[in-house]
Amino acid sequence: MSPSGALIAILPCNDLDASERFYNRLGFARPDGERPAPGEPDTYRMLSNGKGGYLHLTDAVEGWLTPGSNPFGLYLYLENVDAAAREFQQSPEDKPWGMYEFAISDPDETLVRVGWPTHLRAGAQ
Q1: Residue 93: which CATH number?
Q2: Nearest to residue 104, comparing CAs of 116, 94, 121, 91?
Q3: Which segments constitute the Glyoxalase/fosfomycin resistance/dioxygenase domain (predicted)?
Q4: Dist. CA 73–CA 12, nearest whole Å
């Protein structure tokens, strides 16, 4: 895949370590080569899932993320929705808009929907 035309979300986070651990559970990680040397600032993290999904995490400016009022949201298209749902103890369901999905919140209460088109699911009619 050529990166030309790719769109990658840059998500502000109050606690980069907690956010990175959360997104690790969704299959996103950063290569060891992307980690700064010991003692260097670690305020920007580039994660990928090895399937064409990318997410960058950055330190939030103070006051950007107020608990209960986070305006950010992400949608992760993931073929194995059920496995991700089990990881977060969720129950996905078919929605009227044609997606099999569930919703969770990350440590900063960013809405994260995980889904796959219902008609593409194995065994779909």
Answers
A1: 3.10.180.10
A2: 91
A3: 11-112
A4: 11
Q: Cα-Cα-Cα-Cα dihedral of 51, 16, 56, 60, to 10°?
A: 150
Residue 61: inside a domain, yes or no?
yes
pTM of the model: 0.89
User: What's the CA gap between 34 and 45, in Å, rounded?
Assistant: 8
Question: In the beta sheet, which residues pair with residue 10?
Answer: 56
In a domain, 14, yes or no: yes
Q: How many domains does the chain have?
A: 1
Domain-embedded: residue 2: no
Domain of 94 in residue numbering reads as: 10-120
Residue 113 in domain: yes
Residue-wise pLDDT for 7-47, tens only, equals 899 999 999 999 999 999 999 999 878 888 889 989 999 99
